[in-house]
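User: Run a structure prediction on this.
Assistant: Running it now.
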Amino acid sequence: MTTTFSHLACIACGRRYETDDIRYRCDCGDLLEVRHDLEALAHAYPDLKARFESRLGKFEKPYCSGVWRYHELILPDLPVAAIVSKPEGNTNLYHSERLSRAFNTRNLYLKHEGENPTLSFKDRGMTAGVSWARHLGMTRVACASTGDTSAAMAAYAAEVDGMRGIVFLPHEKISPEQLAQAISYGALTLAIETDFDGCMRLVAEVCARRPIYLLNSMNSFRIEGQKAIGLETLQQLGWRVPDWFVIPVGNAGNISALGKGLLEARALGLIDRLPRLAGIQARAADPFYRGFLTGFKQRPVVEAAPTYASAIRIGDPVSRDKAARAVLAFDGVVEEVEEAELMEAKGMADRAGVSVCPNSGVALAGLRKLRAQGTIGDAETVVVILTAHGAKFSRLGVDYHLGALADAQPSAPNPPVRVRPLLDQVLAALDKEG
């Protein structure tokens, strides 16, 4: 296989590898990334922005996808015939006066990645990762997951004849909806009696010993698909750069991808400046925040405690070094929030008509905190990336409004009103509501 535009490179020592070399780390131990020859890309495609605009509204695959619309910036060496797409992307960018008032942010946009086919942003990474696996001729793919990665990987693997998905899940630590997705899409589902970090260690060891392609965020090709979140947001804003992107952080692949895509967009002249980045964690699982407090001179590892934001319950983020580099390059900040704060922020978005997951509640609570601190100014334009749909956590939403969460009581509870099937009781309930 001959590549034209891309190669793998170590983020620390810079050692170069070919893209058909199946590896996830450099010989020195650090992570790899896909590096594109941006000068060659600019020469080959001098009309990139016009290309992207021309693909808007397409109905045919692959360019109807909100990832493969940017094919030249995602995996330019991937043949169209290898692309596995549902399609994904084309998610809404919500903007309303009610949302802006709720979060005390005049120019607020919510990029809702929960509107992807399996209801999370992971679909953007998996269309790239599974496509590359298909291109390499791999027949088994695997991942460790807190729920969303496994759903996406299982769904995309199911699209390819002869490909088998294998997921490593922490037993009884994901939502029933997330578990149902992996099972329903036909993946071999291993419920392992450990946490995510334990699952991650195991899947890495298994993939080192068997011809199984690893699709966690240490896979550099998967990260390339996730860059499209930022690219699509920019296009939806008319290529105007917001002042801030705010994003929840778990394994840290998404904030890494966001930063990489934005840097490449500026280098290619698609945008003329960079935004700032804010990564937000739940206090129960906050190793990245603790590292930020040291200027990333230390790499804390924690035993992640239970949190409603279960998808980011990770004590040792795989992509920590890439994410730290992004935060520093974008003059970014990292903050943490409590359980009550993240559930209140989730409730506020839900009440404004945008159903969000608790992990997105972390980002929204972080926005509230940064606004209160004055870190984010009133007139600044802010895009918060919502990573999954609230429908994946329906039991949690019900329990919150029933007041069943001891450490997160709702400020505006809205439990169902039980009424007997009698007209006068129905009318009385309506009259009580006012």
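The two ends are 69 Å apart (CA to CA).
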